[in-house]
Amino acid sequence: MSAKAGLKANKAVYVSIANGDIDKNEIKRHLRTIEKCINQLCRDMAFAEERHKVELLLLKSEATRDAIDVEAHGARVAERLRFLLQRQAEDVTVVDRAKSNTKFVESALAALDPHTQLSAVGLKNVRACAQDSQASAR
Asked: What confidence category does residue 133 fall into, taking pLDDT thresholds of 50, 70 and 90?
């Protein structure tokens, strides 16, 4: 049953009442058709609402997974840098390369959006890792 069938049955009831030829069995049949259409529309609406809720939950979980992936990538990079710095604590070129690469990335980000105020967080992290690795090497 569709909404169109329900409207057609409703119109048939209205016409039969307007013409005065009221056949109770015919009106009952049309009213049953209208009721079936209304029930089907209610089920469709409930299904659409549940589907909407599930889609929202899926979007939220995907956004959460993306945020976790970004954090995990940052942790992997930091761990790799820490490993390199600890392995070659005396080698100053690794620290210098890390600092220059960090400056390059931060300047590229600043060029993309000149309104951001970067406080060189990456450079501070590189310096802190270098100091930690040098302190642990001693």
From this structure: low
